[in-house]
Amino acid sequence: MITLGLDIGSxxxxxxLLKEGQILVKHLIPVGYxxxxxxxxxxxxxxxxxxxxxxxxxxxVATGYGRNNIDFADKTVSEIICHGRGxxxxxxxxxxxxxxxxxxxxxxxxxxxxxxxxxVMNDKCAAGTGRFxxxxxxxxxxxxxxFGELALRGKNPSKISSVCTVFAESEIISLVAKGxxxxxxxxxxxxxxxxxxxxxxxxxxxxxxxxxSGGVALNxxxxxxxxxxxxxxxxxxxxxxxxxxxxxxxxxxxx
Amino acid sequence: xKRIMRRYYTEAKYAKLLGKKIAWITSGGPVEPLIAMNIIPxxxxxxxxxxxxxxxxxxxxxFAEGLGYSQDVCSYVKDDITSSITKESPVPGGLPEPxxxxxxxxxxxxxxxxxxxxxxxxxxxxxxxxxPFVHTEFTDEAxxxxxxxxxxxxRFLEKHTGKKFNYKKMKKVGHxxxxxxxxxxxxxxxxxxxxxxxxAFDAFFHLALIVTLRGKKVVVRYYKTLLKELNxxxxxxxxxxxxEKYRLLWDNLPIWFRMRWLSDKFASHQAALVxxxxxxxxxxxxxxxxxxxxxxxxxxxxxxxxxxxxxDQMADTIKTFIKQYDVDGLVMHSNRSCKPYSFxxxxxxxxxxxxxxxxxxxxxDMTDDRKFSxxxxxxxxxxFMEVIKQRRK
Lengths: 255, 393
Ligand code: SF4
What we know:
The complex is a heterodimer. By secondary structure, chain A is an alpha/beta fold. Chain A has 2 domains: about 1-90 and about 240-255, ATPase, nucleotide binding domain (Nucleotidyltransferase, domain 5, 2-Layer Sandwich), CATH 3.30.420; about 95-235, Nucleotidyltransferase, domain 5 (2-Layer Sandwich), CATH 3.30.420. Helix content of chain A is about 40%, strand content about 20%. In chain A, the strands form 2 sheets. Chain A has a 5-stranded mixed β-sheet. In chain A, helix 3 (about 130-140) runs parallel beside helix 5 (about 165-180). The longest helix of chain A is centred in the last third of the chain and has 23 residues, at about 180-205. Chain B is α/β, with parallel strands linked by helices. Helices cover about 55% and strands about 10% of the residues of chain B. Chain B has helices spanning about 1-15, 15-20, 30-35, 45-55, 55-65, 75-85, 110-120, 140-160, 165-190, 200-210, 215-235, 260-270, 295-305, 310-325, 340, 345-350, 375-390, and strands at about 20-25, 40, 100-105, 125-130, 245-250, 270-275, 330-335, 360-365. In chain B, strand 3 (about 100-105), helix 7 and strand 4 (about 125-130) form a beta-alpha-beta unit. In chain B, helix 4 packs across helix 6 (about 75-85). Classes of the chains: A alpha/beta, B alpha/beta. Iron/sulfur cluster binds next to helix 7 and helix 15 of chain B. Iron/sulfur cluster (SF4) binds near residues 111, 338 and 339 of chain B.
C-alpha cells in the first residue's frame, strides 16, 4: 500500500510518500499565498520523483495550517499528532518533542507507545515561533540557512530582553549601533527564542530524551541554545523537517 | 428569558416615570439591598456581554482606545464607556442613566477606576464596597471590616433615596436570593449526569437572571421551570450534545462573540463542555450565608467569591469540579481583558497536575473580537481533542 502525508505549513509544504512502512520519496516546496495550489504542485512533483501515478496512492492524510484546504485528503489530523507519530517512527526512544513552526511552536510529550500524552503551544503572538528567527535573520542581513552557524561563533551572547518580535528587532538595531558584533548578537537572538521554548518545556514537564522536529531543527544555533538551557542533549534527524508529513503518511497507513 | 430581560430593560428605561431609581452595580456587587429598596439594578457587565454577543466589542473597544484608554484595559470597561457616549447598544437607546453607582472590588481592581470615571461623567454618588483579598483565610478583622460596610451601604441607600431601609422586605429578598442561588446550583449540578443535559454554553445564556435579578420572584420561577426541564432530560438520557463522548471543563469568562462557533467545534468532536468556573461563581458561597441573617453574613459571602481568593483555593475548586463532573480535559480561556481571572492560570495548571488531565489554553477576550484568531484556536482545539481521544484508547 502507498500512502501520502502532506504537511502544509505557513511557509513550506512538505510531502512524504510511504510504501509498506518505507519512505519512497520526500519533497518540499515553498507555500506562497495559495496553499491548495502549493499542495497540488507538491503532489505532482512527488509523483514524478517516485515515478508513480496519483491513482497508486491509496490514502492521503493532510496536516499543518493549510490542512483544511486540502479537500482531496481522506482525513486531516493536527500537527501535534503527526509530529508525535513521525518522530516516534524515526527516533522511538524520544519522549519530548520540540517543534518551532512558522506560526506556532509546540512541545509534545509522548508516552512509551508513542502516543501524545500532553502538549503546549505558544500563545498567540509571533515571539517564540519560526517567524521570529526569520525577522531577526533579515535584520542581521543573514541568510536563514547560515544564521545558526553564525550564532555558534558568538563568544559573549548579547542580551536581548524583549520577547516581542517587533521590539526585539529594534533592540537589535540599537545593539548594532552600539558596535556589538554580529556573532554575539546572533547568539543572543538564538538564546532569546530558546528561552521562550524552554519555558514551554517546563510548563508541560520535560521527559528526556528530547528531540527537535520541523525545519528549525536544521538550525544548529537553536539546538545549541536549547541544549545549554535545558542541560540535556537535543537530538535531531536529517528528516526532522518531514516529521509532520511522515507522521501523516504513517497515520494514513494505519486505517 | 428574552421576555424577562426585555421587561427588565424596559422597566429600567421608564424608571423615572415609575418613580424608581437606578443603580449601576458591578457583577459581584451586593444587589439584594437594592432590590429591597425598590431600586432597579443595572449591570454594565451584563450589557458588556450583550455587546460581545452582538459582535460589537472590537469596534467599541477601538472607539475607547481612541479616547486614550489602553489596549490592555478590560473590554467591558471600554464597551461601557463607549456605549455611554455613543449610545450604541443591543439595548435600544443604550443603558438607562444611573442615579447612583455601587462598586465592589471583589472581582477586580479595574472596577474602581471604571466606576469613578462614570461617577464623574454622570455626576452621581458612588458607593464602594471594599472587600479585602482572601489569600488564605478570612480573618475576624476582615469580617468586621466588611460588616461595617454593609451598614454604611444601607445608610448610603437611605440617604440617596430619602427613604428608611426596608428590613422586612430585605428578609424576603434574602430568602429569594438564596433560593435562586440554590436552584442555580441544582441547575448546574444536572450536568454531572451522563450525557449532560446542558453545556456551559447553555449555562452562559441562563446565567443572566441570577446575575441581574436575584432576590426577585421571577428568577426563582424561571430556574424552577428550567430545572424541571433538565431533570426530564436526564430522566430520558437526552444529552445537550449528540452522542456525548468526552466531557470538558471551561475556565474563565465565555468568549461571547464566538459561542456558536466554539460550541459547534466541540460538538463536532462529540465533546460537551459540561461545566465552567464562571457560572458557578453565582452559587459558590451559598454555605456562607445565613438564611435568617442575610445582611449580617453577606459581607463574608461577597468577599470570598471565586475571583477574590488565592490560586490555591481556585485550584481546589477546579479539582472538585473535575471530579464532580468527571471531565476528560480542562479548557482555559486566557482572557486578555480579565486579569484577575487569567493571571494565575499557569499556576493552577501546575497545582492540578495530579489530576492528570490535559489542559488547553485558548488566548482570546470575552468581547474584543480583535483578540481572537480562528485558525490558531481551531488547531489547538483539534490537537487537544485528538490527545483526549488517544488517551481514551
Ligand atoms: S477585569 Fe474581569 S472582573 Fe474586572 S470588570 Fe473586567 S471582566 Fe470583570
